[in-house]
Design goal:
Layout (H helix, E strand, L loop, with lengths): L1 H7 L17 H4 L4 H10 L1 H4 L14 H15 L10 H16 L6 H4 L9 H24 L1
């Protein structure tokens, strides 16, 4: 068991940190107010963008594999870094889901906020992000109607 734990320390997945905001980022396509952007970066971007800030314990296996799977799953559901590659209909749906998951206290995940206390949203921050997401979803949905 000890040898296995030592050996797996040499096998790590690629990190989700390209360090570059690409042209498909939601902030390049839509207005994201600074206060909303700060909340998104603090509470959402580690799992829902191409730029994860890794904690010290990510260097330990099998924790790194678990974190990698968690990030991949988060990006599969929503990736703010690739948001402008989504169809207009999908964009509206994802924004509506953002509002719903925050309203229902499903996001950020409790397993994330257990360690990342700064990702716990205040009621004011929840209202801020939910109102922004709903407003942008309506704006995007209007684009669909015009097509």
């Amino acid at each position: 068991m000890v040898i296995t734990m030592l050996v797996i320390q040499f096998f790590h997945p690629a990190k989700n940190d390209n360090g570059v905001m690409n042209s498909h980022d939601i902030t390049r396509a839509y207005t994201v107010p600074d206060d909303v952007q700060k909340v998104l970066h603090r509470a959402c971007y580690d799992c829902h963008s191409n730029s994860t800030t890794y904690p010290w314990y990510s260097k330990i296996q099998p924790v790194d594999w678990w974190l990698n799977d968690h990030v991949k799953d988060g990006k599969r559901h929503l990736n703010f870094s690739e948001f402008d590659t989504y169809s207009v209909k999908r964009k509206a749906k994802k924004l509506t889901e953002v509002a719903g998951t925050i309203t229902d206290n499903e996001m950020p995940l409790s397993s994330y906020t257990l360690i990342h206390k700064d990702a716990i949203l205040t009621d004011a921050e929840k209202t801020l992000v939910v109102n922004w997401a709903r407003g942008l979803a309506a704006q995007v949905a209007d684009t669909v109607k015009k097509l």
